[in-house]
Structure formats: C-alpha cells, structure tokens
From TrEMBL, chain A:
It holds the Pfam family COX3. Residues 1-215 form the Heme-copper oxidase subunit III family profile domain. InterPro entries: Cyt_c/ubiquinol_Oxase_su3 (IPR024791), Cyt_c_oxidase-like_su3 (IPR000298), Cyt_c_oxidase_su3-like_sf (IPR035973), Cyt_c_oxidase_su3_a-hlx (IPR013833). It comes from Caldithrix abyssi. Keywords: Membrane, Transmembrane, Transmembrane helix. Gene3D superfamilies: Cytochrome c oxidase, subunit III, four-helix bundle. It is found in: Cell membrane; Membrane. Belongs to the cytochrome c oxidase subunit 3 family. Coiled coil: none annotated. One of its GO terms (biological process) is aerobic electron transport chain. This is Cytochrome c oxidase subunit 3 family protein.
TrEMBL record, chain B:
The chain crosses the membrane at residues 15-38, 45-66, 72-90. It is a multi-pass membrane protein. This is Cytochrome-c oxidase. GO terms for cellular component: plasma membrane. It is found in: Cell membrane. The keyword NADP does not apply. It comes from the Bacteria.
From TrEMBL, chain C:
This is Cytochrome c oxidase subunit 1. The lineage of its organism: Bacteria, Pseudomonadati, Calditrichota, Calditrichia, Calditrichales. The chain crosses the membrane at residues 30-50, 70-100, 112-133, 153-175, 195-220, 240-263, 275-296, 308-326, 347-371, 383-405, 417-439, 459-481. GO terms for molecular function: cytochrome-c oxidase activity; heme binding; metal ion binding; oxidoreductase activity. GO terms for cellular component: plasma membrane.
Amino acid sequence: MEHAEKKPSYLQHHFADMEQQTDAAKLGMWVFLVTEVLLFGGLFGFYTFYRAWYPEMFMEAHKYLDVAMGTTNTFVLITSSLTMALAIRAMQLGKKKQTIAYLAGTLFFAGVFLVIKYFEYSHKIELGMLPGKLYFFDGIQAANPHIFFSVYFTMTGLHGIHVLIGMIIIGWVMVRTMRDDFSPEYYNPIELTGLYWHLVDLIWIFLFPLLYLIG
Amino acid sequence: MEQQNTATAHHVLPLSLYFTVAGVLFVLTGITVAISFVHFGEFNIIVAMLIATVKASLVALYFMHLKYDNKLFMAVFLSSLIFLGLFLTLTMTDTMHRGDIDPIKEHPIKKEAVFYNK
Amino acid sequence: MSVATTANYLNEEKGLKSWLFTLDHKRIGMMYLFAVMIAFFLGGVFAILIRLELLNPGQDFFTADTYNQLFTLHGAVMIFLFIIPAIPAALGNFVLPLMLGAKDVAFPRLNLASFYIYVVGALFALYSIVAGAVDTGWTFYTPYSTTTSTSVISMTLGAFILGFSSIFTGVNFIATIHKLRAPGMTWFKMPLMVWALYATSIIQVLATPVLGITLLLLIIERTIGIGIFDPAMGGDPVLFQHFFWFYSHPAVYIMILPGMGIISELVTTFSKKKIFGYKLIAYSSLGIALISFLVWGHHMFTSGQSEFSSMVFSFLTFFVGIPSGIKMFNWLATMYKGRITFEAPMLYTIAFMFLFAIGGLTGIMLGAISIDIHMHDTYFVVAHFHYTMMGGTVIAFLGGMHYWWPKIWGRMYSEKWARVAWALIFVGFNVTFFTQFFLGSQGMPRRYYNYLDQYQPLHMYSTYGSWMLGVGFLIMAYYLIYSIYKGPKAPNNPWGGLTMEWQTTSPPIQHNFEEQPVLEHEPYDYDTRMVVNDQLIKKEDVKEKENINV
Ligand code: HEM
Ligand SMILES: [Cu+2]
C-alpha cells in the first residue's frame, strides 16, 4: 500500500503485479466453476439413475416438452454467449461503447430465454405436468411420470436461477463499464462474468438434448 | 493500442473466429434436433451427447479462452468432469446391480406411485 | 530477546468495527477461531449431556425424543460448525499466508464473506434448536428426515449455507497457494501444512457442492414432495445415502488432512530434524484426497445397496490405509534419532500418532464387509470415528493451537498447566472411547438412550471419562485466555521453527512481513540451520565460533 512506485489503483496491495492478480482471479473463478459443475452434477446423477430405472417412462414423458421452444432457447443462449465474448473483446480494444452494447445484448438474450422459459413453465403448470406430489396430468401411460417432471423442474429451475444471477452480475459490470471502471489494462470483472455466463450456456447445452431430445 | 506493459498483454482474437464458432454451434444444434427425429434406439443418446460435448468444448476453448489461457485452468475444469464421472459410475455399481446376487423378492421401490393409481 | 511492543495486527487498528470489517486474514482467522470455539463448547455440552443420560440404563434425565435431538445436535454442531472450519478456516487462515511469505490470501473480501456466510449458516442451525430440534442424526437419512416433524429444514438449510462458506475458503486457498508463494518457494519447498491445506481445499471444492444439492433436494422433497427419495412414489431413499456420503466420506478427510499437516510441522520442529520423506508426505496428501472420493459406499454396506457395489467399495476402502500409513511411518522416522523436546505441542503430536493409529486401523477393520455387517451402527463405529475425529483432528488442532499461540497473541501460556490439561484430555479421551470398542463389539447399538444392564459398567467408565475430558478442556480454556492478558511476552520464534511464519514478529505486523521474504532454505533444513534467541543461524558458523554446543 505504502509503496511509492506507481501502482495502478486497481492493483490490490497483496499482489506484486497485474499478471499475478489477474491469474489468481481467473484461477479462483475456474475453481468456482468446478463447484458449479458438481452442484449440477448431483442433478445430472439424479437424471441418469432414474432414466436408467425408468427408460420407457422417460421416453413417454419427454414428448410433452416443447422441442421448438427448447431449440429456440438454445439458439438464444448461444447468441448471448457470443455477445458476451464480443463484449470482452471490445473492452480488450478499449471500445467502451461497444462493450456496453454487447453487454446489453447479452442481457436482452438472457431475458428472452427466461421469457420463453416462463411460457413453457406456465403451460406445464396448467396441464398439471408438475414434480412429485403436485403432478395431476392424465396423459402419460408409463409408471411414475411425475419423476420425470421432478427432474425437469429441478434441473431447469436451478439453471434458470443461474441465468437470473448471471443477469444481475452482467447488469452490474455494465454499470461499472459506464462508470469507466475498466480499460484494456483492467477488465477482469467482465472476463470473470463472461466465464460464469459461458458455463451457464454450457450446462444448457447438455440439458437441452438430455431433456428435450430423448431418442 | 499501446502494449508497453507486457504483463497485461492478452490475446485479442479475430472477430471472424467468434462468428465462426457461433455458426458451428448453431449448425450443430440444428443437427442434434434433426437427428432426434430419426430413431437409432440406443445410439440416439450417444450421438446427442457426442454433439453436446463438441459444442461444449467449442464454448470452453474459444469463448472461455481455455485454448489460449493458462493450461492449469483446463486441468482444473477437466477435474470437475472426472470427479462427476466417478460419482456417477460408482453410484451405478449400486443402482444397476441391485438383486444380481441375492434376488429381490419384495420391491421396496414401488414401480408405481400410490397416488397415481387412480 | 526482542519483544514486539510495536505495532502489530492486533493493535494497529482499534475498535469493534476494525474487526468486523477487517480484510486481514489473521483477524478473520481469529474471528473464525472464536466462532468455532463457541461451537466446540456447545457441542461439548451436548456430549456431556448424552453421556450423562447413558450413565445408567433406563430413562434418567431425558426422554427418548430429547435424547435423539441431543445426539443429532451434538453431531451436526461438531461436524458442520466446528471440525470442518476449525483447522482450515481458523488456524489455516492465520498461518497459510505467513507460511507462504505472502501479505494475505488471494481474495481477502471473499475470505471475510466466507466468515459471515458461516455466521448466517450457524444462525440457521442454531435456530433449529428452538424450532423443534432435529432428531434425524447428523446424517439426515431419508425417509425419516422427510417425515419427522422436527425442524429438519432450518438445520439442513444451515448446513447448505455453511457449505458455501467452506467452498469459498477452499477456492481462496487454492488460488493463494498457486499464486502467492514467496519468490524461491517452489512446490516442493512449501511447508507440509500448506500441502495438506491444498489437498483439503481440493476436497472442499469438489465434494461440498454435492452436499449442497443433496440438502437442497432434501428440502424440496420435504416441502413439495418431488418423490426422488420416497419409495412410495417410485423414488429411492438409498440414493440419498449415496449423495450424502459422496460428500461426507471425503469430508472426513477435510477434517483429518489439515490435522496431518499440523502434525508434519510439529514433528520436525520438536525433533529438530529434517522431515523424513518430504515428497511422500506431500504426495500422500494428494493421494488421500483422491482416494477419499472412491470409498463412500463403505458407510452403506447394510443399506441395501447392491452386493457388487459393497464389494467394490470394500476393496477400494483398503487403499485409504496406504497414504495414511505412509505419513505415519514418515513421522516416526523423523523422530528417530531426533533431538526431541516435549513441550505441549509435541505432547499433542505424540497423542495424535497413538490415537489416530487406533482410529485408522479400526477403520480398516470396518472396511471389511464381513466385520462391518456386525459392527455397523454399534458403539464400535462410534469409537472408531471418535478416535479419528477427536483423537486425530481435535488433538492435532489443539497441538497446532498451542504451537501457534505465541505467534497469534505474542504471549506464552503456562507450560505446566498445558501439561496437566494434556494429560487429563489424553487419559480422559481413552477412558471415554476405548470402552466403547468393547461396548460395540458386545452389541451395544448406537443412538439409543437406554440399554441392557450388562453394558452398565462400561458405559459408566465412559461417562467418567467424559468428565475428565471436560475438566481438561476447562483448564485449557482458563490458561489460554489468561495468557492473552497476563502471559509473558513471547519471542518471535519460541520453538526454533524454520518455516516463514517464525521469521516475522509475534504477533505479526499488519501486512505480515517488513519486506517480501525470499525463501533461502528448505522448510525443514535442521541439518544446516538452527535458531538461537530468535536468530536463524547456519550450523557451520556456530561450529567455527564454538560458543554454542551443537
Ligand atoms: C484409514 C482410514 C479410515 C477408514 C478405512 C475408515 C472406514 C470407515 C468405515 C468402514 C466406516 C463405516 C462404519 C459403519 O457405519 O458401519 C466408517 C465410519 C465413520 N468414519 Fe471412518 N474411516 C477412516 C478414517 C476416518 C477419519 C479420518 C474420520 C474423521 C476425521 C472418519 C470418520 C468417520 C465417521 C464420522 C464415521 C461414522 C459415520 C456415521 O455417522 O455413520 N473416518 N469409517
Ligand atoms: Cu467413510
């Protein structure tokens, strides 16, 4: 802190230089992403074990998911990942306005994703395709279809919460970009937000075929 | 842009790369959806997972810069998948082998929910 | 003897606020220490009450239901609130940056956040006591946990939140160890405590999220009934056990690994001899971390999991013994022909080696299916895990606390009273728990408030032992707290340690070191170095002057 040599304000006192600080932050983020993978991992396990136990039921029940909406959402989320990556690139080049625009784009697509999800959910809720005890739909003949919807709602629900959290963080770095907190020398928070956002996309990339596209 | 400070030097990837990757992701999404309407039985899930893995790798390598960043991050990330794999495999030594040796006479796990038997 | 009357991390800033908002890893570590000691006290009170009920057969003080709540609270508080954060988050937080020669951990704000998340989690857990204390056992097995009327939700939510605190500590330590080592400190020149904390952090990061999702699913199951753990709805309660133990077996290594790290430090310092097999001890920490993920099914031999699964897990369980054994033999070899002195930390080290050997070997016994079928859910298991957790982790924690106490507070405690407390704890522990091996092998089941008359003598001894333990801990609390205010000032390096935390003042200054320290020798170079009156000197220089006999 006291050191006289000019250290930039965004370099924290306990790091020797920016490279050390950035690398530490990224490593921390990656390790955090590992915990996210394992958090979802429990649900992927839940999916795997029950699909192995009730293959016909999964086959029957999944037909009631809306492939068109699921596919649209996949495109939407991939696009949001693209704009996120481009936001970082813009900041690397010091183009503040572009960064803000791309972040806004990411927020927009994230919003679209949630709106589509909302329509999917409300349709299911109406028909009674609900998890566990709440289930009251009549159309599926195989045994224990409520389990499929327990899987569906917990997986997409946890994912949806992550999208929501992602939106809050993206909004926050957007504000910070407007405040001129970042520069080509220092844009670490945007980068970390990007990593988180891409992971949310990554998880969806697996959720989509597992839930919507069962053979 | 000036690059006097080598410590903060970073890769600025060409725009075309980002768009190509996104394009490939779109195409692959289209392919999985299309394939899901053709029935290969067992193979459907394998193909779908393969495509998903390719897509995920693209996102990780290019959007998340794993290809260009410290290789430690790659190792960290892969470790999560390995341990998830261990969790699934070892649990399946149980769930897939109940009753193999001592046949199950009573079914503790009901095939059908009580409340569902209307 | 230069004594720190100057500015240090304790007195540089004053007032409650300077503590509550501090980003200094040392202060955060001390707040953690304070919190876990409260938890330890609370858990201890529950333990004494449990033992009191078991003094005689029949119902004496508590009803069966209250008894169930007592052992659940004892277990949950000890595990989630005390033992998991005790060494990494409290002592580790304090010593890790010092040992690395760093100014702080990589993410000081995350560190503080982790502490407050711990506090919030703890409040939820404690709230459950007034909201109709849980009676499921700390393992929360379904289907009982989804049907009992007690406050399962606030306790599991508490454990869920505590998990995040643990994850953040792990993330922080991994980044710190990778990025903030002093110049010259390569991986194989790190103190072994750091290796142990590294392996611990890996487990925290990989295993805790699975506990998180498990508890979340349990909460959802309890609230809306999604049916996954409910056999009446096509679900499977045994899956809960898989999910739970995928975390909780590795978690026992979250508890013991840092303890082993402390022992590695103490055994060399007090033997004044280079550690034997440095690399093996370092690698065995990683080995334990890896293998710990492969053996969880040994808790489920009688659960109804498939026979194949039991065979696989039993086979894999035996491998855990190898890295633990490696450490044990290396410590013994380090002591061999060392110049051993028996200050309090060393007494705890020896107690650890003795007790953990018993705990580990009985673990191997339980790993054999044929024995475990008989011993499962008996007092034999209770004795086993107390020998590992209390005889291992808690004893190592106490050893570490006595070792770093002078560094933390700049004061010495009374060595005489420390020995008295140590003796009471060591003897008391064995009286309490060795008897339980006999109880268990004679068929006394665990988690019952009542028992047949034939078990009475052994239960009685066990309860007497618990009183001895209690007295030992009270004495310890007294002389430690006394030393903070009235103890003689501590030198910078009272034990002659060579790791970096001893190169700064006691207590350390705010940013740990005057200048960035550079590693000049290996952490345990007792062959060539020694410490005399806080001065690190080369032995060859001493021999030349010949004023001190080596
Ligand atoms: C050599 C290493 C170890 C082996 C082979 C081992 C093996 C086992 C086995 C087989 C059981 C299951 C017994 C049963 O429930 O019937 C068990 C239980 C237990 N072990 Fe260990 N163990 C080892 C080390 C540890 C350590 C280091 C700790 C803690 C720091 C620990 C804590 C526990 C606990 C808490 C239980 C009881 C869990 C419950 O409530 O059911 N173990 N151990
Ligand atoms: Cu275990």
